[in-house]
């Protein structure tokens, strides 16, 4: 849930608050690195949690089959939006790439599936993970100049993240309604 919230928030900030223009295009070297790496991390973190849930779905009890089906539909919608050509070729990860990123983001050191954190993501760079994420890094740098070519995909992903949050936190217990504005 936190991964979905963080990613939708970053997309909102890119589109409405000019996050990448401020911190990448006009930022210090430190700001530039953070803007790119943290944005890529937020995508990878979401995919890590999605893959962990996919692998463990047989243990997930969402109060019945209908709830589980609804949850999977929400996940599949995001999965499709990340890979479809209908939204252009920018900021796209094919199905296998999404799974690969997700698998590499899972940290099983504690015995329970979880995701590596931002510090590990940045300091223990995995060449295999970078292979899948470097195209996103390039797209993020391009977004700092012009978000228009990426707008359709980003908006659809952000809307789906908001829908996922509404499903997982319908009473706004963890994340207030005011922080779930659709683009």
Question: In a nutshell, what does this entry contain?
Answer:
The chain is an all-alpha fold and 183 residues long.
Architecture overview:
The chain is mainly α. The protein has one domain. It has 8 helices and 2 strands, in the order αααααββααα. The chain has helices spanning 2-16, 19-25, 29-56, 65-83, 95-105, 118-123, 127-143, 151-168; strands at 106-107, 114-115. The chain has a two-stranded antiparallel sheet. A hairpin with a 6-residue loop joins strand 1 and strand 2 (114-115). Helix 1 (2-16) runs antiparallel to helix 8 (151-168), helix 2 (19-25) crosses helix 3 and helix 4 (65-83) packs antiparallel against helix 8 (151-168). The protein is globular and about 50 Å long. The mean pLDDT is 91.
The biggest sheet, with number of strands, parallel, antiparallel or mixed sense and barrel status, is: 2 strands, antiparallel
Strand coverage percent: under 5%
CA-based shape: globular
Alpha-beta classification: mainly alpha
Let me know the number of strands.
2
Give the N-terminus to C-terminus distance in angstroms.
Answer: 19 Å
Please tell me how large the radius of gyration is: 16 Å
Helix content: 55-70%
Mean pLDDT: 91
Instruction: Give the neighbour order of strands across the main sheet.
Output: 1-2
The ordered string of helix (H) and strand (E) elements is HHHHHEEHHH
| Unreliable runs | none
């Amino acid at each position: 849930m936190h991964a979905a919230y963080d990613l939708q928030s970053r997309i909102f900030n890119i589109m409405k608050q000019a996050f990448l223009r401020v911190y990448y295009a006009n930022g210090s070297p430190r700001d530039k690195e953070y803007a790119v790496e943290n944005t890529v991390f937020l995508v990878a973190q979401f995919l890590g949690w999605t893959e962990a849930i996919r692998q463990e779905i047989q243990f997930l009890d969402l109060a019945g089959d209908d709830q589980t089906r609804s949850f999977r539909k929400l996940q599949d919608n995001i999965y499709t939006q990340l890979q479809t050509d209908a939204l252009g070729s920018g900021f796209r990860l094919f199905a296998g790439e999404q799974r690969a990123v997700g698998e590499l983001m899972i940290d099983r050191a504690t015995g329970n599936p979880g995701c590596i954190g931002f510090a590990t993501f940045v300091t223990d760079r995995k060449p295999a993970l970078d292979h899948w994420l470097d195209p996103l890094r390039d797209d993020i740098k391009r977004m700092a100049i012009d978000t228009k070519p990426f707008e359709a995909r980003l908006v659809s992903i952000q809307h789906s993240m908001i829908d996922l949050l509404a499903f997982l936190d319908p009473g706004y217990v963890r994340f207030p309604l005011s922080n779930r504005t659709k683009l």
